[in-house]
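ok so i was messing around last nite and threw this chain in just to see what happens. nothing serious, just curious
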Amino acid sequence: MNKEKLKMSRYFLKDSIRKKIDFRFTNQNLGDPVPPIEKAYQKDSKLIDLSVFDKWENIPRADLTEAIGERKSHRVYLKESLSQEELSYLLWCTQGLRGKVFNGQAYRNVPSAGCRHALETYLAVFDVDGLDPGIYRYLPILNQLVFEFSDDMLAEKITIASLGQPYPEKSAVTFIWAAIPYRMEWRYGLAAHKVIALDAGHVCQNLYLACEAINAGTCAIAAYDQGEFDELLNLDGEDEFVVYIAPVGKVRK
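result:
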């Protein structure tokens, strides 16, 4: 291995870069407007209301110690659908809001550096009750899904983008998290990118644990074709791009 390249890559994990940043000149401290906490959508888009936390009827209370002890990656899923209530629960656990939006910030059920939350949640839906197959995006402020588009070749494209790994297309729904880096760069400049990666880990771990409560499983995927996934979601690959993937389906306990 090239030691110099390894050294450069390891630098990303260190906090040393903060010592080289003059935070007086970040976009935040220069007075630039705070970035939106949620990506906009077309006003004529199809929106789907999701069930809310205090209205769930079929989501059991899970023991945290048991959920942590049982957590593992699942790559084989039963041919069973998820309910919309179960999907609502998984979205709430991974990016749901707690409290009001204020000053360009919103507290969620996962931590994020500076409460910046640079991630958008896309869903490749294959088998969720009441939802047509296709690509959706979660709107956490109003707790809704926005339907992005359908594609008759979605399963095949997901497999290609996943470098031939078959389980993303065999899921009931595959979570796809994309980063909008400027949300974090606005506050932290060049120090933003490490914490975006850390935030993605927080989100996916919550998904793992939430799946345990509904007899479902997931498997985090970081090996994928960047260009194929960005193109699949119609992302520009620069100001927004895919960073993490996790298929979800019912599993045999």
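not much to say yet. The longest helix spans residues 192-213.
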